[in-house]
Amino acid sequence: MIDVNRVLLAGRLTRDPELRYTSSGTAVTTLPVAVSRTYASRTGEKREETCFINVVVWEKQAEFCAEYLSKGSPVFVEGRLQSRSWETEGGQKRSVIEVRAQRVQTLEWAEKGPPEETRAPADQGVPPEEEIPF
What we know:
- The chain has a single domain, classed as CATH 2.40.50.140.
- A 5-stranded mixed barrel has the order 1-3-4-6-5.
- The protein is built from 2 helices and 6 strands; from the N terminus they run E-E-E-E-H-E-E-H.
- By secondary structure, it is mainly beta.
- Helix content is about 10%, strand content about 50%.
């Protein structure tokens, strides 16, 4: 059996990107993305379903996203699912599944034209044990 962990998303940011730095100085940005789909119910009524997904972007690509993207920006994300677990200060265990971006592109440049740097650099391979600051 072959395992595949690949995610492709096109949606809009629900908030401005949040740029932070790990204790070792590595840039990390969280992009909250809304992805919608329209479908017809059994009665033929049109309905819309929206998923809200956190996308995590690392290093130079994280800085790029924080500089060029904002709430409402249409984006295309290519990456993989990743699961993280941690314990709160109160001792509660938490976990989350999110998308770790390997590539993020804005979709609005087709109309406006790209800035000087046309796209974010590819994933630099940050080790999975790197902690995301909250």
